[in-house]
Structure formats: C-alpha cells, structure tokens
Amino acid sequence: MTEKIMDQIRIYEAGYLLPASLGEQGAGQEAQSIKSLIESDGGVFISEELPAIRPLAYSITSPHGSREHLTQAYFGWVKFEFPQGSITALEGKLKINPQVARLLLVETVRENTLVSLKAPVVRKVDGSKAGISEEEIEKSIEKLVADTVA
Q1: What is the pLDDT, as a whole number, of residue 6?
Q2: What pLDDT, on a 0 to 100 scale, did the predictor assign at position 143?
Q3: What distance separates the 2 farthest-apart alpha carbons in the chain?
C-alpha cells in the first residue's frame, strides 16, 4: 500500500447489542453478518468477541420495528482496520440493521484491549506475602521432575 493509503487506515471497534429473542444460533449468525458487511466494505479484522447473553443494567427499547423491551441482550464486539473516509457510511449500514438494538463504533488502538487476569499472589495466614527463594523453587522443580520420571 502507498503511504497515503496507509495514513488513511484507522483501527475501529464496534460493540453491539442483539435481542435475546434471536437465540444463541441467531446471534452468531447476525455477528457473522456484521463481520461480512465490514469485510465487504474493505475492513480487515484484528480481534473479536462473539456475542454472549448479558443482563442489561436497565431496560431498553429496540429502535427498529417491534419496539421490543430488552432486559437482556447478546453483546459482542469486533476490532478491525478500516479506511477512515468510509467509516461514516459503514456506521450507517450497521445502524439500519433491524437486528442491532444498539451500536457503538469508536476509533481505538491496535493493542490488545482484553482485560488479562493478574497473576495470583500467595499470602501467608497472617496476610503478608509469602516469599520463596530460588533455591526452594529449584528443589520443587527437581522433585516434580523426579516424581514424573519415576
């Protein structure tokens, strides 16, 4: 790609809510439909989270047709590269989808946005952190290897 085109490519993330009435299979199909639309307009995927049912903090009304009141919905998201000049048109196409109850499209960064779990910290009974020396670690590893081989 030329430098000018590369300057126009941005990273976006689209978060969406789908009605619970779709069911798990229907939500998966709709997520695939959303991805297909993004891809057909020139998007390149980075990461995603498939839709999973979630309770909503408050009831919302679907903006399309049925005016269904949702208390739970399938939430999913997709992160992708997309030409900056075309993002408004893509957002319009995603918002008119009758199965998308809510959509949030934001410009973001390429880095992983998943929350990673913290490594566990071993604590003593009194609440202080338990310390272990390298020598104790080596002995434990040797014992584990010896038990595995035997």
Answers
A1: 46
A2: 84
A3: 68
